[in-house]
Write a structure and sequence with these properties.
The two termini are 28 Å apart. This protein has a two-stranded antiparallel sheet with strand order 1-2. The chain is mostly helical and 523 residues long. Helix 6 packs antiparallel against helix 7, helix 8 runs antiparallel to helix 9 and helix 12 packs parallel to helix 17. It contains 22 helices and 6 strands. A hairpin with a 2-residue loop joins strand 1 and strand 2.
């Protein structure tokens, strides 16, 4: 063991004495530090209007819009008619005061906008309930306008063509309009629910009433911010669609045709519901700035990975071949130590640089990002184990994700080491390994060209792309717009198959490299 430790130290010293290694290392660190700074500067431009609702005078804009509509429409008495119309209400014939809009669809919409604007300007308290400060103020106003538009379009039907069915539908929308009016003018979430519940009977509601009720449970007064409520609603919508998939026993992914759920599909979806429910109950709403910071950190690490690839391929691809070509390896071979110990020391030194380089890159990039975005919280990764929600802190998650994503990188570096053991040509080992790394997207290209073939499942890059299998709920950290089940990662094989495949491949590469190194004559 002491000899292996001494050989290992010797290999580490030899690698550290190479100027090219330190040049690439400095470039990688520079990327990890400077890229987040540059991206953060760009982010400031993107979010310079983050307080958009503070900069917009909604009341002033509404006054301008009202004046413009009034000028466009002119005298509304020219096309607005009123009369008493008879309808059957609860089996009784009654006269109802009604309005007829003798105009086209566009003019009726403008008239509706004018009426809504006048109502808001005369009765809405813009100081007590600033528009845009809460989610309810935005969605209730939208529904208020939409419902009044529908009423005005119905009023384009001439008096003589209106029947009891028309009246029944008109009353339904009028009642919904009253609910939306109350929700908007009194900040009443329950009234908004009543409006959505009523219109759900004709399929004209925007939100499922059950989802609205869940929001009411945690925010009955509708005072939560727009961003917080909107993202919590996003969780509820995704949770609802996932529960529907479980109830129907069908995969309802947007990216493929419906199919019967397997046992693993069901377990995945049930865990997904548990995580979404946990995030909702604890009000862990998504943050656009947090997601943006994570994306920039991920992009920075991806850029730094190129420098790390160059570093590791240089180290692995020249570790044996260069020493054999120059004859410097003779001092090791003639020493009283077995070749397998030399082989193991070289392999351990390469692995050490791989791990150290990866840690340095991820830590530098992530800590720089966290420092530059100290005003936001980067979320932890949630997963389910034993029916209980657990979490992995963001920094640890990024480190683990990097090394899982780098499985293929390690295999290709091992390939470079194997070729280095077989030949005296460092250029061949570096070129072949680099070419395979750059061709990692070949399976996707092949599937796009010739379709999914069984033999494609045995290509190395497919079986080493396992990040979405190891961390299946990573997208739930920042949003639910993409479905995990059957999404863009459909080229994956089962995790157990990929791990066995990769393990066998590593053993084969190590066996060939070891055999070449121990049997090769040193001249």
């Amino acid at each position: 063991m002491n000899k292996i430790a001494a050989l290992y130290s010797n290999e580490m010293i030899k690698i550290s004495h190479r100027i090219s290694v330190w040049i690439v290392t400095v470039v990688m660190i520079a990327i990890a530090i400077l890229a987040p700074i540059a991206f953060s500067a760009a982010e400031e431009g993107l979010y310079e209007d983050e307080n958009y609702w503070d900069t917009v005078d909604f009341k002033a804009d509404l006054i301008k819009k009202k004046d413009s509509l009034a000028q466009t429409l002119g005298d509304t008495n020219d096309f607005v008619r009123h009369s008493n119309v008879q309808f059957t209400i609860n089996n009784e014939r009654r006269e109802v005061f009604s309005t007829w809009l003798d105009c086209d669809e566009e003019k009726a919409s403008d008239y509706s906008d004018l009426i809504c604007a006048n109502n808001l300007l005369s009765g809405y308290d813009f100081d007590a309930r600033p528009y845009g400060k809460s989610w309810l103020s935005v969605v209730a106003l939208r529904s208020y306008y939409s419902c009044h538009h529908q009423i005005c379009q119905m009023n384009r039907t001439p008096f003589e063509e209106r029947n009891d069915e028309w009246y029944s539908m008109f009353m339904l929308y009028s009642q919904a309009f009253d609910y939306y009016y109350e929700a908007l003018f009194t900040n009443n979430m329950q009234s908004f629910y009543n409006g959505e519940k009523l219109l759900s009977t004709v399929g004209d509601n925007y939100y499922e009433p059950e989802i609205i009720q869940r929001v009411i449970d945690i925010d009955p007064s509708g005072t939560m911010t727009f961003e917080e409520t909107a993202t919590l609603m996003e969780m509820l919508v995704e949770m609802h669609s996932t529960e529907l998939a479980l109830q129907s026993n069908l995969n309802l992914s947007r990216n493929e045709l419906p199919r019967i759920l397997t046992a693993s599909d069901k377990a995945h979806l049930q865990d997904k519901v548990s995580i979404l429910n946990y995030k909702f109950v604890h009000r862990q709403h998504y943050s656009e700035k947090s997601a943006f910071a994570h994306q920039l950190n991920t992009l920075t690490i991806s850029l730094g990975r190129f420098a790390l690839i160059i570093l590791l391929v240089l180290v692995a691809g020249t570790s044996v071949s260069q020493e054999m070509a120059t004859g410097s390896i003779k001092s090791l071979i003639i020493a009283p130590v077995r070749r397998w110990k030399i082989f193991l020391a070289k392999l351990l030194s390469i692995t050490t640089w791989c791990i150290a380089g990866g840690l340095l890159l991820v830590l530098t990039s992530t800590l720089t990002t966290m420092l530059l975005h100290s005003d936001i919280s980067l979320p932890s990764y949630l997963y389910v184990s034993g029916g209980t929600i657990h979490y992995i802190p963001y920094l640890l998650y990024m480190i683990l994700t990097f090394f899982v994503d780098s499985l293929s990188l390690f295999v290709y570096i091992l390939l470079a080491f194997m070729i280095s053991c077989i030949t005296k040509n460092s250029g061949i080992s570096v070129a072949v390994s680099s070419g395979l790394i750059l061709g990692a997207n070949l399976p996707t290209i092949l599937v796009a060209m010739i379709g999914r073939k069984r033999w494609i499942d045995f290509l190395p890059s497919i079986n080493m792309n396992i990040s979405n299998l190891v961390f299946p709920f990573s997208k739930l950290m920042y949003g639910t717009t993409l479905s995990e089940l059957g999404s863009e990662e459909a080229l994956n094989n089962p995790l157990s198959f990929s791990l066995i495949y990769t393990g066998v491949l590593v053993i084969i590469l190590l066996a060939i490299a070891y055999d070449a190194f121990t049997r090769r004559d040193i001249q």
